Amino acid sequence: MKKVMGLSRTYHDNSPTALITVESLITSSSGLLIYVALVDLLVANFMGPKLQGSVRLMASYVAMFLGASCMSLMAK
Q1: Which residue, 28, 35, 57, 65, could crosslink 51 as a Cys pair with Cβ 3.0–4.6 Å?
Q2: What stretches pass through the bilayer (predicted)?
Q3: Domain layout of the chain by residue ranges
């Protein structure tokens, strides 16, 4: 318990080290969310038998990239 209390005395919310650490953790977790969304969830839909060999597959890719582009612009 003493170590935790000692850490709370030395931790400052606005210090550059704390801000860099927190922002690094936030960006890595958002990167993992993007990976899971694009690789694990969308692959199952795009590789299904209904979309293979159809025009809907190309339309799905275009819609996905347009959506990702819009989300990137909103984030910027």
Answers
A1: 57
A2: 20-43, 55-75
A3: 2-75
Is residue 64 a contact partner of residue 42, using CB atoms and an 8 Å limit?
yes
Tokens of residue 43, six digits: 């692959």
For residue range 7-65, list pLDDT tens digits in order.
566 777 788 888 888 888 998 898 888 888 778 777 777 777 776 777 777 787 888 88
Residues 6+ apart with CB under 8 A from 46: 57, 60, 61
Contacts of 27 (CB under 8 A, 6+ apart): none
| Nearest of 1, 22, 64, 37 to residue 56 by alpha carbon | 64
pTM as predicted = 0.48
Q: E-assigned strands of 3-76?
A: none
- Give the single-character DSSP code of 52: T
Measure CA 12 to chain center. 27
